[in-house]
Write a structure and sequence with these properties.
Helix 2 packs across helix 10 and helix 8 packs across helix 13. Strands 2-1-3-10-4-11 form a six-stranded mixed beta sheet, with helices on both faces. A five-stranded mixed beta sheet has the order 7-6-8-5-9. It contains 13 helices and eleven strands. By secondary structure, it is an alpha/beta fold. The longest helix has 27 residues.
Length: 339
């Protein structure tokens, strides 16, 4: 009898799981899922999100159609606020944001109206290195020179590494970056460099630079002068690491907290209160895409390395980040003027 009871329970459990799977498939069949990118079209983040969207329907039960929309603004905060507060919460929308969004409520609590620990993180496609680079005619051609000579760098908005990292560098390391913000996208900043409005970029994705303007790197039109991250990128053995310029443990702690966004890289999420079974199915599909040979090949064409983290890994990193000393967080808020 005991064996029969256990067998019956196992059959009931399997039936319950199958019913959940069927419910997810039935829901998504014939549906359209929107992937809303928090940056303008044409950037590395946008192209990466479009590559992910192309393959998600292959692995999600019901095989819905995936479309990509763009909602730039405030370093992806506008898009994330919209999705987390207005939804929809039925599983038909995914957000694709800058890596700074998961820690945004630490640094910009007045404008980031969401709780990153309640967001349903699907994972990230890439862990990143960001670099600062200068135009070939800029008066500064090395990071050491930025301590003595002002360098005009273009940026999108506070909350994006293009703005935050040179600002942080000025306060913590003593550099002399002058940040000019308000550009819509990285291509727009690059166009401003060509026009002579700015002399470089304080921080932007290494893969984005390779994707958008690899010819600039080949012919010396731009020169990387610093890399931001916890360790050097193998592509850049001769470019100094910003962390090595930190003079005190407190300075290192501040830089390391800011670099969490690089570890998280290019995250994808679903809003809070999305049905758990649909989140689970979307996470499983996202993980499958990260292993898809065609997707990996397409990312390689975009000069993007697939170095993924799953949703649980992203959440684990965030839980540790949100345990950071309040003194370190307050210092960074003052530096970034986000109190």
């Amino acid at each position: 009898m005991k064996r029969m009871g256990l067998a019956a329970l196992a059959m009931l459990a399997c039936a319950h799981l199958q019913a959940r799977a069927d419910a997810v498939e039935d829901f998504y069949k014939g549906k359209t899922v929107r992937v809303v990118v928090g940056v303008a079209p044409g950037s590395g983040y946008d192209l990466n999100a479009r590559a992910v969207a192309k393959y998600m329907g292959k692995y999600l039960p019901g095989h819905p159609t995936f479309i990509v929309q763009n909602q730039p603004g405030s370093g992806s905060i506008s898009m994330t606020n919209t999705l987390c507060n207005a939804g929809p919460f039925d599983g038909t929308v995914i957000g694709a944001s800058f890596g700074g969004i998961p820690t945004a409520t630490l640094f910009t609590p007045s404008v980031a109206r969401f709780d990153p620990l309640k967001i349903n993180w699907l994972g990230t496609t890439n862990q990143e290195t960001h670099v600062g680079y200068v135009w070939h005619t800029a008066p500064v051609q090395s990071f050491d020179e930025v301590f003595k000579t002002r360098l005009l760098v273009g940026a999108q908005a506070p909350g994006v590494t293009q703005y935050d990292f040179p600002t942080l560098s000025n306060a913590v390391l003593g550099t002399r970056f002058k940040v000019v913000s308000g550009y819509e996208s990285t291509p727009a900043v690059h166009a401003a460099m060509e026009r002579g409005e700015v002399q470089g970029v304080g921080a932007s994705g290494w893969v984005t630079l390779k994707l958008l303007n690899s010819d600039w790197l080949k012919n010396g039109t731009v020169k990387p002068i610093i890399q931001w991250g916890l360790k050097k990128n193998p592509d850049l053995p001769d470019v100094p690491l910003a962390l090595d310029y930190a003079k005190t443990p407190e300075d290192r702690d501040a830089l390391k907290l800011m670099f969490v966004r690089l570890t998280i890289g290019r995250p994808f999420f679903m809003p809070p209160n999305t049905p758990p079974d649909r989140v689970a199915a979307m996470r499983k599909a996202f993980d499958a895409v990260m292993k898809d040979k065609d997707f990996i090949a397409e990312e390689a064409k975009l000069k993007l390395d697939v170095i993924p983290l799953d949703g649980d890994e992203v959440l684990g990193i965030l839980k540790e980040a949100y345990k950071t000393s309040p003194a370190v967080v307050e210092r960074l808020r003052k530096i970034l003027n986000t109190r």
